[in-house]
Design goal:
The chain is mainly beta. Helix content is 8%, strand content 36%.
């Protein structure tokens, strides 16, 4: 670019834009001049990722996060925000996401955080963190965020381990996401790999086929595969006394679905545990949620018996 600018100046006899050699070298993405880079200063460690949030450049290291800002300096425009440093690191390069006007990240201690200003606040639970600590490989973890029905969700996926966890930012609740193949075999993780909001739709990239899908409230499959959903109750007990259950009733929106094919007669299968979730019943107690339009369908399972610690799934 410098020779071209010189020729323009020589031809027209007018001043041309002066570009320093240091800046020109930055543009090629290969070589960097001595004045066009910076290093971690307060707690030097390897940089894992950088995220821009509210005009603050967050430099994520393995053990710390440094906020930087644009001060408009001639040679290098960024400098560290004085007196600030976050004593938390980033475990995986792609394990950050922006949602709810802030940044979420997977910390070096296998805890998921959200930034409140420049203060990391725990967003995961101890039970979920215990599951993460059992994973052998976590450095491939990655995140993405999307909005749906007024809720913002953040998906944290561990590809090698085959698990996907999703946080509902509005409620603070977590759940697992799992997809199945055409042979009704679990893929372990959710097949959603990334998202983008465009043309009034939420597009999801498929990790297994490379296809692009659209999130829809009226579609009951993922790329022609079934979508099973599992809900587990917390343990129900009363001072370790026997709790007699005359019947179990599930409060659910009934009479929904489609007129034919998969989803025309939605089914729910119940199983239960009488020892807090250690062992489970073998019986598959099926009930219909009601075909489309059967809005008054009730889902009841009678004669459940007694237990000191019930769990229903």
């Amino acid at each position: 670019i410098l020779p071209v600018l010189r020729r323009i100046a020589e031809t027209y006899g007018k001043p041309a834009l002066v570009v320093s050699r240091e800046f020109a070298s930055v543009l090629d993405g290969v070589s960097y001049g001595a004045l066009v880079f910076a290093a971690a200063e307060t707690r030097p460690d390897d940089v894992v990722a950088v995220v821009l949030n509210k005009q603050i450049l967050l430099v994520f290291g393995e053990k710390s996060i440094e906020p930087w800002q644009n001060v408009g300096a001639a040679n290098f425009p960024f400098e560290r925000v004085p007196g600030t440093m976050i004593e938390r690191g980033l475990l995986a390069p792609h394990a950050t996401a922006k949602a709810d006007n802030t940044v979420f990240f997977f910390g070096e201690n296998r805890v998921f955080y959200r930034l409140d200003g420049l203060v990391p606040i725990r967003a995961s639970t101890h039970a979920i963190e215990d599951a993460w600590r059992r994973y052998t490989t976590v450095t491939d973890a990655h995140c993405f965020a999307y909005s749906w029905n007024g809720h913002e969700f953040i998906v944290l996926t561990f590809p090698i381990e085959g698990h996907s966890w999703e946080l509902d930012v509005a409620t603070g609740f977590w759940h697992e996401r799992e997809s199945w193949d055409i042979n009704n075999r679990s893929l372990g993780r959710w097949r959603g790999n990334c998202s983008v909001s465009v043309y009034g739709k939420i597009l999801i990239g498929d990790a297994f086929s490379g296809k692009i899908g659209v999130l829809s409230a009226s579609t009951y499959d993922e790329f022609d595969t079934v979508v099973p959903m599992i809900a587990v109750s917390p343990p129900v007990h009363q001072d370790r006394k026997n709790v007699f259950t005359q019947h179990f009733e599930m409060d659910i929106e009934s009479g929904v679905g489609i007129t034919s094919g998969q989803g025309s007669d939605p089914q729910v299968m119940l199983r239960y545990s009488k020892d807090g979730g250690v062992t489970w019943s073998d019986r598959q107690l099926w009930r219909s949620m009601g075909a489309k339009g059967a809005y008054r369908t009730r889902m009841r399972w009678p004669s459940m018996g007694s237990s000191r610690e019930w769990v229903w799934e």
